[in-house]
Amino acid sequence: MKKLITAVILSLILFVFAGCGSAESGNRVPNSQTTVDDILQSAAVQSEASQSGSNTVSKNETSTAAEGIDVDLTVLSSTMVYSEVYNMMSMPDDYIGKTVKMTGIFTSTHDDTTGNDYYACIIQDATACCAQGIEFILTDDSKYPNEGDIISVVGVFDTYNEGQFRYSTLRDASIV
């Protein structure tokens, strides 16, 4: 039994190393780090080129730029939205100051320790098994929607510290 387990482990190790290699050996992964934004931009250009036969800007991109939106999650597939939000949470400094538009499920919570209320827009992935959310703070005393409502929110991405933890939020947000 030990020999079988050892053989399986060695096979897995060899399988993993067989996929690695240098650029000269045909490795197709570039040395530079590719971000979700790079992939989204490439996909948008390819999609538009295949639809119109040229590299023109789509209507969605034009309206987004006209609205001053830097990151429009409302025009992406559910898988790409989830990926972009994950990217925002894992590398928040890359998004600070960018205007973000997103659509998702409204939720709120109250923290008895701080006495603060928190509001968020929750986005699920394509299979609806996983969820990521972004907190938002409205610009005025607008009435918040009902729990579970589908909302679209626009705000400026920022971070803040509360205690020893760093959180992300959309400041100066509005529900559109």
Present the secondary structure layout.
Blueprint: H1 2-18, H2 36-52, H3 59-67, E1 71-72, H4 78-90, E2 99-110, E3 117-124, E4 131-138, E5 150-162, E6 165-175
Parallel strand pairs: 1-2, 4-6
Antiparallel strand pairs: 2-3, 2-5, 3-4, 5-6
Structure description:
The protein has 176 residues and is an alpha/beta fold. The chain has a domain at 68-175: OB fold (Dihydrolipoamide Acetyltransferase, E2P). It is 32% helix and 31% strand. It has helices spanning 2-18, 36-52, 59-67, 78-90; strands spanning 71-72, 99-110, 117-124, 131-138, 150-162, 165-175. The chain has a 5-stranded mixed β-barrel. It is globular, with a radius of gyration of 21 Å. The model is unreliable at 14-33 and 49-62 (pLDDT under 50).
Distance between the termini: 62 Å
Helix and strand composition category:
alpha/beta
Mean pLDDT: 74
Low-confidence stretches: 14-33, 49-62
Tell me, what's the shape?
A: globular
Can you name the CATH architecture of the domain at 68-175? Beta Barrel
Record the strand order, biggest sheet: 2-3-4-6-5
Number of helices: 4
Query: Helicity level, as a percent range?
Result: 25-40%
Rg over CA atoms, rounded to whole Å, is 21 Å
> Helix-strand pattern, N to C?
HHHEHEEEEE
- CATH T-level topology of the domain at 68-175: OB fold (Dihydrolipoamide Acetyltransferase, E2P)
Main sheet summary: 5 strands, mixed, barrel
Number of strand segments? 6
CATH class of the domain at 68-175: Mainly Beta
Strand proportion? 25-35%
